[in-house]
Design goal:
Layout (H helix, E strand, L loop, with lengths): L2 H23 L1 H10 L1 H9 L6 H23 L4 H9 L1 H51 L25
Length: 165
């Protein structure tokens, strides 16, 4: 065992102890956060993509729904009794899980909206290029658009006969 692995193990142990001690003093917050963020855990488990887009969408919106109740707990009375009162309110569950549902809807709808905008932008670009091509044809003639001007253009470039000849 090298000194770096021993140092890493010691650092992990110290970090774990700090998290455990802080967790003991913030258990009411952890209770609300843990129960409120369950949809994010579900998204994390079901999201197979490397980028974790579903987890990001659902997690951000879910945390937005949980945060007001954590702030209420912090500003009023940071106790188990108040945490259980918050959890017992059906409105709390509606807000926390409703925000997660909005995250899921963003995850499912956003790609379609982005695809629609990209398609519209591509179509506008094609129309702009066709207008530009028409202007060039009017100015320089049909040869600029790849049209045939005379018989020299119909001969193969290599001097060998083409397929139909």
């Amino acid at each position: 065992m090298t000194t770096t692995s021993a140092s890493t193990a010691a650092t992990r142990t110290i970090f774990g102890l700090i998290v455990a001690v802080v967790g003991l003093f913030t258990l009411p917050t952890i209770l609300i956060l843990g129960l409120g963020m369950l949809p994010t855990v579900g998204a994390m488990i079901s999201d197979r993509r490397k980028e974790k887009y579903a987890t990001l969408c659902v997690g951000a919106m879910n945390f937005t729904g949980v945060l007001p109740f954590m702030i209420t707990l912090w500003t009023e009375d940071h106790s188990y009794e108040r945490a259980f009162q918050i959890i017992a309110d059906p409105f709390t569950w509606l807000v926390m899980y409703g925000a997660a549902a909005i995250g899921w809807s963003i995850y499912f709808v956003a790609p379609s909206i982005v695809g629609m905008f990209i398609g519209m932008r591509t179509e506008q670009r094609i129309q702009r290029l066709r207008r530009r091509q028409r202007d060039l044809v009017e100015e320089w003639g049909p040869g600029v658009a790849g049209g045939r001007r005379d018989e020299e253009d119909t001969k193969p470039a290599t001097g060998r006969p083409g397929r139909g000849q």
